[in-house]
Design goal:
Blueprint: E1 5-7, E2 16-19, H1 22-31, E3 39-43, E4 48-56, E5 63-71, E6 79-84, H2 89-102, E7 106-111, H3 122-135, E8 143-144, E9 148-149, H4 150-154, E10 161-165, E11 173-174, E12 184-188, H5 196-204, E13 208-211, H6 219-231
Parallel strand pairs: 1-3, 6-7, 6-12, 7-8, 7-9, 10-12, 10-13, 11-13
Antiparallel strand pairs: 2-5, 3-4, 4-5
Helix pairs in contact: 2-3, 2-6
Length: about 230
């Protein structure tokens, strides 16, 4: 059994006693039934990782002795996905979970011309990102941006190449053929795809048009395919 991994955003950087959050304490003592002397791992979601030994186990306040700190280098490059809201909220949550496990660094919930429904549940989605980060033993929590309109996003200053996946006719590159050694922001459209005007505007903003294959994918499936290809260097 692997050592349980916990997220504590206020994790100190020095050895000593540390009280887990109420949520972590409850999970540690009630769900995992861990007791004094058991070992855990902790991260602040910003690359800091340390070992801990439980010295007092309680569902409201579990105390650990921290030791063996390590600052993990951030992944390079940093890949981000801007993906349109979909009608089925569960599908978006599934995408966030799996793309986090794959290693995507940040997410932009996107509002495009054909986006039909927006349902931004920030607290719930943040919880999904944390759970997926811990499950995949990562020390960096992805950034969840606030919802943003398509036009606003592509006009923002950025330090990443801009890619746009769409199903309209026209010249496109296979995602596997673009430079994946640099920071990338990839846009995935809604269930009705991006409009021709949006595609034209993105091209004028320097976006490279890309293809994710020969079949027509659901929005969340396209997001996962993009995540795998971006991270597979």
């Amino acid at each position: 059994m692997s050592t349980p991994f916990f997220y504590e955003p206020q994790l100190p950087v020095m050895p000593g006693l540390f009280s887990l959050s109420a949520e972590s304490s409850k999970h540690c003592s009630m769900v995992l039934r861990m007791r004094e002397g058991d070992s855990i791992l902790l991260t602040n979601g910003l690359g800091l990782k340390c070992s801990g030994e439980i010295v007092a186990s309680d569902k409201k306040k579990t105390v650990v002795q921290l030791s063996a700190f390590e600052q993990i280098a951030s992944p390079n490059p940093q890949n981000s996905i801007a993906i349109s809201f979909v009608k089925n909220a569960a599908r978006m949550e599934w995408f966030l979970e799996k793309a986090t496990e794959i290693g995507i660094a940040s997410f932009y919930p996107l509002i495009a011309d054909r986006t039909e429904r927006t349902h931004f549940k920030k607290e719930r989605w943040e919880h999904i990102l944390v759970s997926a980060m811990l499950q995949s033993q990562q020390t960096y929590k992805p950034v969840l941006h606030d919802p943003i309109a398509f036009k606003s996003l592509i006009q923002q200053p950025r330090n990443a190449q801009l890619l746009l996946a769409h199903c309209e006719p026209g010249e496109k590159k296979a995602l596997q053929s673009v430079d994946r050694s640099v920071n990338t922001l990839l846009l995935i459209g809604p269930e009705g795809d991006f409009t021709p005007d949006e595609i034209k505007l993105a091209a004028q903003s320097g976006a490279t048009m890309i293809s994710l294959g020969y079949t027509r994918l659901r929005t969340e499936t396209a997001g996962i395919a993009a995540a795998v290809l971006l991270q597979n260097r």
